[in-house]
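Long-time lurker, finally posting.

We've been working with Pre-mRNA-splicing factor SYF2 (Brassica carinata) and I want a structural starting point before designing mutants. I don't trust myself to interpret raw outputs, so I'm hoping someone here can both generate the structure tokens and explain anything notable. Sequence follows.
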Amino acid sequence: MRAADPEFYREASSLQYGKVSTKISKDKIDKMAKELHDREEKRQEFSRRRKFREEKDIDSINDRNEHFNKKIERAFGKYTLEIKNNLERGTALPD
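Top reply, 14 upvotes:
Generated this for you. Predicted structure of Pre-mRNA-splicing factor SYF2:
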């Protein structure tokens, strides 16, 4: 918007600081309204993946711990799978 209109700053600097100018033209108001409307439409299009998933089991206390747990699972997951399954079934404790 401002890059396309080289007169944008020149007109703004001619006004005195703190003074209200009534010389705002209708087309500039329409241009501003259009820009705000376009921004709002763009925000409606934007969508990001949410981090929270209800079906996922929670095994961490914060984001840093979650990242650490993922790294540990990648490295040692195949070795600890049987122990985890026994703990879930309740058969991990000796008689």
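Before you design anything, note these points.
The chain is about 55% helix and 0% strand.
The radius of gyration is 30 Å.
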